[in-house]
Design a protein that fits this description.
This protein is mainly β. The chain is 6% helix and 44% strand.
Amino acid sequence: MGSVVAKFRLVGGLICVSAGIASAACSPDVAEVRGMEGASVSRFSVEVADDAGERATGLMNRKSMPSAAGMLFVYETPQHARFWMRNTLIPLDMIFVDPTGMVTAVHENAVPLDETMIDGGAGVLFALEINGGLAGPLGIKPGSVLRHPAVPQHIAIWPCN
């Protein structure tokens, strides 16, 4: 296990780590997102939706979600991602990610039960849904980087070393 040399801060109930984390290991039930300058890391306990049925259901019909939790949608191939909030009862931030782990788009505060399509753009291999209103304060925006074992490690910007 690696050593941690870091400063900690609390944002929206999440512990964000600033500075270096040496030899952090990836886990299928944890998604990490690093800000553009690499200064902060946000960790989310995630459910992985990696088949058509799980992706279709997503976070529908849930009345709440812990602040440090989310759902990671994993597609078989990069595609044009579109989401809606049908039967979704909680506001969500949607973070769209390319095959290298680079965040390409962020949609903040998707409105519960709204059936308007949310366009995540082309080339999306992953979408991370977290509680609405967290992405901005955590510094998650296009250019941030996702680390998770589902990201192809041979091209990952931030691999699971």
